[in-house]
């Protein structure tokens, strides 16, 4: 697990899509379709391919350059108190919707996504990374889904550079458009 000091400059920056993020997302979607279509893959390999493709989507802009970061992560990176404390605090790239849940949705009815890019995009829209502290990760609400797990944690939209008022994922188009 990484810490604030190691990624301080990245964590302070405003969100900007990576120069290859659209290509990474498109390639990952293609890999998901190939995994769903293939009749020769064993289930374990199919699940692994889909899970890895979902991971690559959340890291398309960089593991710690995600659009969403918690207030605590941003405050520690900016070092608002000016004393440099907190730099050793552990951080992690959290999946707002766990990959296992998104994979399960895709694998439950693969035919619904193979020839329907719009349906696949709606599922992919749930593939969002958010940088949290290890402590915040442990505090995410069990039994809740998606952004509801972040109840009690302030999350910043680093594209807008402000806390998000209501929790809902941005559309895939929004994520793929350059700023």
Detailed description of the structure:
This protein has 9 helices and 6 strands, in the order βαααβαβαααβαββα. With 179 residues, the protein is α+β, with helices and mostly antiparallel strands. It has one domain (2-165). The protein has a 6-stranded mixed sheet. Strand 5 (155-157) and strand 6 form a beta hairpin. Helix 1 crosses helix 4. The longest helix has 17 residues, at 21-37. The radius of gyration is 17 Å and the shape is elongated. It starts with a strand and ends with a helix.
Q: What share of the residues does DSSP label as strand, in percent?
A: 5-15%
How far from one another are the termini?
Answer: 30 Å
Give the tally of β-strands.
Answer: 6
- Name the strands of the widest sheet in spatial order: 1-3-4-2-5-6
Oligomer: single chain
Low-confidence stretches: 169-179
Radius of gyration: 17 Å
Biggest sheet overview: 6 strands, mixed
Integer average pLDDT: 89
Query: What is the helix fraction of residues, given as a range?
Result: 40-55%
- Which series of helices and strands comes N to C? EHHHEHEHHHEHEEH
